[in-house]
Amino acid sequence: MVEVASPNLAPPRGSSVTLPLVAAAAAAAFFIGMDATVKLLGVRFDALQLTFFRFASGSLFALPLWLWFRSPLPQRGHWPAPTRCAACCCCWPCWAGFMH
Questions:
Q1: Is the pTM value of this prediction over 0.90?
Q2: How far is residue 24's CA from residue 19's CA, in Å, rounded to a whole number?
Q3: Residues 6+ apart with CB under 8 A from 45
Q4: Which of 11, 17, 45, 93 is in Cβ range 3.0-4.6 Å of 49 for a Cys bridge?
């Protein structure tokens, strides 16, 4: 019979449990604050404006995190030719049609 080692369920040495708990508490506090703000402003503004407000305020937190943790984009010369062609032939006309 082959013996299988039991998995180690203890957290690795040097890891901190407090940081995830603080992050979870901060997220809950921000959610409660956002919910209370939307409920207070709900009397004065309509749903579309409140939805944009929630998106814009969430973007203030998400955009710096995305800029900090994203991987760098390749240089323009490293993009394959079909990608550049698709960007010129498809994306620009769609953008122009949207703006028109």
A1: no
A2: 9
A3: 53
A4: 45
